[in-house]
Write a structure and sequence with these properties.
Helices cover about 80% and strands about 0% of the residues. It contains 6 helices and no strands.
């Protein structure tokens, strides 16, 4: 795996983990009531989508191993370009249901410290 591929995977991993951490112990109603929380989660999802989009450009073979990569990139595009139409329930659903499987897929692809 190229250093660029590993960097994009690491960036996506870190951002996804942050989004999970931000909402841990929070309800959807708390999420809706907290502008700062919503902004922080959306920003991390933007980073996930952009990192995966860049991965797709530099290493299509590795990118193809990540389930839902096109959806992550599409969500990033909505958050960035169609921000006025962001569906909060959809974003919450992504964080609750899709980030963990995405993180597992990314973690399986990231090189380990032992030289893999």
């Amino acid at each position: 795996m190229s250093p660029d591929s590993a960097k994009y995977l690491w960036d996506a991993q870190q951002a996804a983990a942050k989004a999970q951490r931000f909402v841990r112990g929070r309800s959807f109603d708390q999420y809706l009531a907290d502008d700062l929380l919503r902004s922080a989660v959306e920003r991390q999802l933007e980073v996930v989508g952009e990192a995966l989009n860049q991965l797709r450009k530099v290493d299509a073979a590795t990118a193809a191993l990540i389930p839902d990569l096109p959806q992550a990139v599409a969500l990033r595009n909505v958050l960035v370009h169609a921000y006025a139409t962001v569906n909060d329930r959809l974003v919450w659903g992504v964080v609750e249901q899709h980030l963990e499987p995405l993180l597992r897929a990314i973690n399986a692809l990231l090189p380990t410290d032992d030289g893999d």
